[in-house]
Amino acid sequence: MAIVDVTVVPIGTDNPSVSEYVSEIQKVLQTYEGKITFQLTPMSTLIEGELPVLFEVIQAIHEVPFEKGCSRVATNIRIDDRRDKATTLKGKLESVARELEK
């Protein structure tokens, strides 16, 4: 299972706020529930799942600003694909918490 940190940036909007785009992206992510886990953060969205599904999801959320009238979109993707052991968003946080307890 891989974890993706993704930020979709609509370019050339009339308003500096992007919350309307973020909320639409979250709605698209909800349609993938059961296939992925996702978490909105103040600066990006974290998504975990199988890599082929994640690429499908990324393409779907990249399209959201275009569907809302944007003519340019920049999407930043960072992939953590660890294959020597299973990792999850929750597991990574728990690992750090264990280290803090030492």
Automatic annotation (TrEMBL):
Tell me where in this chain the Thiamine-binding protein domain is found: 4-96
Query: Which Pfam families does the record associate with it?
Result: Thiamine_BP
Task: Enumerate the Gene3D superfamilies for this protein.
Answer: 3.30.70.930
**Which residues, by range, are in coiled-coil regions?**
none
Listed under GO cellular component are: cytosol
Q: Which family does it belong to?
A: Belongs to the UPF0045 family.
Q: What is this protein called?
A: Thiamine-binding protein domain-containing protein
Native species? Alkalihalobacillus alcalophilus ATCC 27647 = CGMCC 1.3604
Q: What is the lineage of its organism?
A: Bacteria, Bacillati, Bacillota, Bacilli, Bacillales
